[in-house]
Structure formats: structure tokens, C-alpha cells
Amino acid sequence: MTTTPPKVFVSYSHDDDAHKAWVLNLANRLVLNGVDVMLDQWNLSLGSDLQRFMELGLTTADRVLAICTDPYVEKANGGTGGVGYEKMILSAQLMAEIGSDRIIPVVRRSTTRTPVPTFLLSKVYIDFQDDAVFERKYTELLRDIQGEQVVPRPALGANPFAVTSANIVPEVSFSSARYVSPATSGTVTFDFSNNDGKYVVGAGDYAFETKWSRGDNSALHVYNDPASIRTVALALDVNEIQQITNASTYDTSSRTRSPSVGEIVVWQNTAGYYLATRVEHVSSRGHGQPTDEVTFTYVIAPHKSKSFLPQ
After folding, report:
1. What architecture (CATH level 2) is domain 7-145?
2. Which of 1, 182, 299, 306 is deepest in the core (most CB within 10 A)?
């Protein structure tokens, strides 16, 4: 992660008031999350030198967000307006910095097969067209700007099959990285006797540090102790996660709950999002089985929704 606030310049076309408002909201979020954003809506007033603003911003920023819409792409490809002028500056920088990831194409609206300008075709873009996944995409963008990978790469280990003077048993890493699933839904199996019983699902504002411990041979205990967890509750009125219509109605008065196989735990994190986990299988060494292991299916409700009904 960077030690000084990254400076970001936002390049976009003034398509309509709704688009300008969307860009402003994105910039506001980034500023609140430690990003020094240069935006014409803040930095320009009547009589300001627009050309100097663009030149200074594009040449001094650490990253440039190119907010791509059909009008933006048309103006960039045609070299017209402010977008065309910015494209000229950025193209010159790309020639001088081949391989640079300084420019991030952000696709907001596109009705064509080519959602980015021609001069950015070689760049990996991030797609913000679906507002239903805005939070996940925003977290991905913010992590990239702040220099933090969504899934950190582990250190390179030794080849366990390399020829040595003696036969060795391949070692398997048991680091905490094994106890993370950044996706917003899935099925997880893990040994809750390791990593202090914790398993993290989701990422960014969607992160939940779930904590589990041994119960009886078909049940477990879950806790609201981790810093990211606000409450835990049991959804005893439903059999499937997709049947939950209002996650806020369940009893959250206790620090711990004890779900059995087939039962659903509803968690709320400190960012206000809801997670539902359905216990699929439990194995307990305290009852003669070889491992302390739980398998659970999970879904994180988007946009702080209280409903898990299919979208």
C-alpha cells in the first residue's frame, strides 16, 4: 500500500447531468478513501484556464481515470473537444511509457463492441455499467489505486519435489491466506481448529471475518467477536438462504449462536452489509471424527440489502 495519498486525474465527457453526478459521486468516494482527486467540477471556476488544468493534471497525476462512454470514445477517437486534447497528451505519455498502467479505462456506458478509445485498446479496463455490482467494482478500483492487491500473491516457496540427498514429504502452507475467500458467494470447507477458528469471506466493505468453534457432533458455535462483525443471528424460519426477505428481523441479542447442519446464520458487518451462511456439514474430533471441519455455503447481500431473494 502506498505511504502517500495517490493523485488521480479524472478524464470524462460532460454527456449529461446524470453522468456528471455519477462521476462526482465516484470522485467523492475516492477522496473519502484517501485518494487525492483532481476533478474539473472542483478545480475549475469561471475564467479558469481549462487547457492548463488538463495539462497540469494529466502530467502530474499518479493515475488517470478515463471514464468511457460512447460520446467520450467518439471524441477521443475523433480528437475533438477537451477529451480530444486530453487524448493527445495521454497518447504522447503512452509512447514514452510503454507498458505503463498509469491510465485506467473505466467503462461507464457503452453500446458498441469497442467500449474504450482506440489508443486505450491495449489497456485492461474496469466495467462500471452494472450499478448492481458498483460496490464490488469500486473496491477493486480503490485497491488498485492504493496499490493493494485483492488477493495477495504468496511468497515463492521451494520446489518440494526437487532432488535432494533424502526423500522429503511435500510441505503445504497453513498460512492465514488459506482462510480467505474474496468472492461474494460460494461454498467453503475449512478446519476451524486452525487460524483461531476464523475464515474471511468477501473483501473491502463486503469483508466478514467469521469465527467458528466446536459444538456437538452436528452443531457449531459462531461469534460476533471479530472486529468486522457487528451481530450474529439464526434464521430458523427458512431452509435456504434465498428465502430470507429481511435479515434485520432476526434476534441479534447474543454474542454467540449455535447453528446445526442445515441451519442458517445471518451476520452483519460493521460496514452495514449482511452475510448468510448455511451449514452443510460438520466434522468434530471431539466426537471421534478425524478433523474439526465445517462446510458452509454463503451469500453476501449487495448494496446493504436486507433481502437475499434472487436479483
Report:
1. 3-Layer(aba) Sandwich (3.40)
2. 299
